[in-house]
Write a structure and sequence with these properties.
heterodimer, A: about 300 residues, mainly alpha, 14 helices, globular, B: about 450 residues, seven-stranded mixed β-sheet, four-stranded mixed β-sheet, about 45% helix, about 15% strand
Chain lengths: ~300, ~450
């Protein structure tokens, strides 16, 4: 289409012009929905972040005060650290675990299909349900599933969620459990495209498993990894439900992330202006991260 | 070939047009189905919101059906689970429900945002049947009323009677008795299964939504602590007092960092919804609201547990947290007459009795109508313990200031103090006091 659009000549230019309208018509319903339900509220959110929001008494313009307040609040500063740790840990953990799962479950056998479906279940389960389930698994006495397992080994019990030193890691483990199967599916699709003859050639050359992974598998699934990384960058920082359901940000704020702080500010403290400012900051950082990951991915592809 | 292409082109264009139109329609429908529904303009229909789960919503539905039958005024009833979130989003469109029924302690917060219409008690038929104590909890900072009391409750101590009698221990009257009983429940195998799988007391100790401040406030009052002290037209934070230091230190040492088993594991991240140890039959005590009575009756059986007044603390009182729900009128709706008629019905003996009985969870706990006796209406003497606790031994969160941020800050601080067993309570409370002072200053109320 780009080629025809640049072709000179009045007659030929007119047809592509009409054709150019067509995709927009197809897109119109989606765009309209996005405009009403996404972009207008988003714009309103950005607008509100500059106000002390009091709908019935009149909003008061406060300029960048909300931003200053949010960025200098030590609870938000702590939350940045937790968010980054959790976002990066869950993303990387999810990718590594997804990759391992994909390698283990690649193939055509019927039994593998069943196992793959079972492994994929966390993705289709509501996060709130998963959170409640993991709360039970993490139960801090020997009655808890994980602690009873540890008990068999003569260890524990460990108060996973009630100890501020372990709560964030416990949340991360749950996040990885939820994310890995999703990544697995994308990586499996990538693995399906790997040229089998390369493996056979490698086997004849007698290369090690690691060398095979390093020089054949990983380069071949680079596009799939690119997609997985982009998705991770988008959702890594906006982690909310996992934390809200599992720990509520506690104990002692040790699992508070950016979104749980923003939620508390908006809906417990009724500070909509401050919550909007916090959300706008998160939007900007996520946008920056996504663009960077995409840029690096494209540069990698070109190379 | 050309004809075929044109044909496909036309078909595509038609499809695109259809898609675009349907998209537009869907968009318009989506816009139209929001707040400004057709019934909102009908003067004879009131939109009413309550913070209710489906179970208690059924009781409300029965009450509203009786009201419509009696007055002809229709009710567009919306039970809302995530009330605060939904209300804020409706407030942002400046289109509030006509009538809302929600927590007393949120009144200051709503008033600070200008969401409420002031109420003249005289305009509500039967206003004189509501006690002065209940009416006093709806006075705003400017001295005007911003709500009508609807339901009240006070915390009481729920104790596993069968366990206590099996261990041969008396009903707890003081903090020391309570602690001793809790330890006995945790260590002396009250359920007789030969395993150490019971706990003394249930604590919803998470800071999420301010739970630990909600549960802990009764203990604070019994220890002689005030979170805020009223001073003239303003307030002063009082969490740096000697009483606060003594009380919070006691709670930390004995409940949270003491012998294991006095409180249930995972208390520090528990909210009431996932604190089910009492009804699950593995914890022996729970200081909580009477709305749990129906749940506990179903789960444990009436005879297995008893409802007792809270134990007396070092300050010599057994005060507990009283809270409840008020009826609020949304700002700028212009249906004053109908709203007042509804409020009068809801606080009348008929309206209150309907809301206290029935097969589903009752939505009025202690009636605000002083002509009614909770125990008589329900034919259950346990309710007189709750009613007495509310009338004689209860404190309420300050309702006039915007209490929501202060409750959250108190909860954050207490949760942190109880989490880090080695931390210094004095500096934790000092920091809380400074934060509360900041909150009061934000509201121009600091004295």
């Amino acid at each position: 289409m780009t080629a025809t659009a640049t072709t000179p000549g009045p007659r030929r230019a007119r047809i592509p012009g009409r054709k150019a309208v067509l995709p927009w018509l197809f897109l119109a319903p989606g765009l309209l929905l996005a405009l009403v339900f996404k972009f207008l509220p988003m714009g309103k959110g950005v607008w509100l972040s500059f106000f002390d929001v009091r709908p019935f008494l009149g909003d008061q313009w406060v300029g960048l005060d909300n931003y200053t307040r949010v960025l200098t609040d030590h609870r938000f500063q702590d939350a940045i650290g937790h968010t980054l740790l959790l976002g990066i840990g869950m993303s990387l953990g999810g990718i590594v675990a997804g990759f391992v799962l994909a390698l283990l479950l690649e193939g055509q056998a019927r039994s593998l299909k069943i196992i793959r479906t079972a492994v994929f279940l966390p993705v289709v389960t509501a996060t709130a349900v998963v959170g409640e389930m993991w709360r039970l698994m993490y139960y801090p006495t020997s009655d808890g599933l994980i602690n009873s397992g540890l008990g068999l080994l003569g260890l524990g019990p460990v108060p996973y969620l009630d100890n501020p030193d372990t709560a964030l890691w416990a949340t991360m483990a749950m996040g990885i459990w939820m994310l890995a199967p999703y990544n697995m599916v994308i990586i499996l699709a990538g693995l399906a495209g790997v040229d089998r003859s390369l493996y056979e050639a490698a086997a004849m050359d007698g290369v090690s498993l690691w060398q095979r992974l390093r020089h054949i598998t990983l380069p071949a699934i680079r596009p799939a990894l690119g997609i997985v990384l982009t998705l991770a960058a988008i959702r890594g920082l906006r982690v909310f439900t996992e934390v809200y359901v599992l720990t509520g940000g506690g104990p002692a704020g040790s699992t508070d992330v950016w979104m749980t702080r923003a939620y508390t500010l908006g809906f417990t403290r009724n500070d909509i202006g401050g919550a909007s400012a916090a959300s706008v900051v998160l939007l900007c950082v996520t946008l920056l991260l996504t663009v960077t990951v995409n840029y690096l991915r494209k540069r990698g592809d070109v190379r | 070939m050309r004809d075929r292409r044109r044909c496909i082109d036309m078909r595509l264009r038609r499809l695109a047009a259809a898609l675009a139109v349907s998209g537009l329609l869907f968009g318009t429908a989506a816009c139209g189905s929001g707040s400004g529904s057709a019934r909102a303009g009908d003067p004879n229909t009131l939109e009413v919101w309550t913070r209710s789960d489906p179970e208690s919503a059924q009781t409300y539905q029965r009450v509203f059906a009786a009201f419509t039958k009696k007055t002809g005024i229709k009710i567009d009833y919306q039970p809302v689970m995530n009330f605060d979130q939904q209300l804020q989003s409706r407030a942002s469109t400046k289109d509030l429900p006509d009538v809302m029924i929600n927590d007393t302690a949120l009144m200051g917060s709503y008033q600070a945002q200008g969401l409420l219409k002031p109420v003249t008690p005289d305009s509500i038929a039967g206003h004189d049947e509501i006690t002065a104590k209940s009416w006093s909890s709806t006075v705003g900072l400017d001295g005007r009323h911003y709500g009508i009391p609807y339901s009240r409750q006070a915390m009481t101590l729920f104790v596993r009677k069968d366990w206590r009698e099996k261990l041969g221990l008396p009903q707890p009257k003081t903090w020391q008795d309570t602690l001793a009983l809790a330890k006995a429940f945790a260590t002396r195998d009250p359920d007789g299964d030969g395993k150490k799988d019971t706990y003394g007391m249930v604590v919803p100790g998470s800071a999420q939504n301010g739970y630990v401040a909600w549960w802990g406030s009764s203990w604070l009052w019994q220890g002689g602590v005030r979170i805020l002290q009223k001073e003239g037209t303003g307030y002063r934070p009082a969490m740096d007092s000697a009483a606060a230091l003594r009380t919070v230190s006691w709670m930390k040492k004995n409940l949270f960092c003491g012998d294991s088993g006095v409180i249930q594991p995972s208390a520090l991240t528990s909210v009431t919804a996932n604190t089910t140890n009492f009804q699950d039959g593995n914890a022996g005590m729970y200081l909580t609201g009477p709305y749990n009575i129906s749940t506990f009756d179903k789960a444990l059986g009436k005879d297995t547990y008893e409802v007792l007044p809270a134990p007396t603390g070092p300050a010599g009182n057994n005060d507990v947290l009283a809270d409840g729900e008020n009826i609020y009128f949304g700002a700028k709706t212009g249906k004053a007459k109908q709203e007042q008629t509804l409020a009068a019905f809801l606080v009348s003996p008929e309206g209150q009795e309907l809301a206290m009985t029935g097969d589903h969870q009752p939505v009025v706990r202690i009636p605000v109508n002083s002509t009614l006796d909770a125990a008589k209406v329900r034919e259950d003497p346990r309710w007189s313990v709750v009613q007495k606790a509310y009338e004689d031994d209860s404190q309420q969160f300050p309702n006039a200031p915007d209490w929501a941020p202060m409750k959250q800050d108190t909860a954050d601080a207490l949760n942190a103090i109880f989490t880090y067993c080695g931390s210094d309570v004095r500096s934790g409370l000092k920091e809380l006091n400074d934060t509360l002072a900041g909150d009061l200053k934000d509201q121009d109320l600091l004295k």
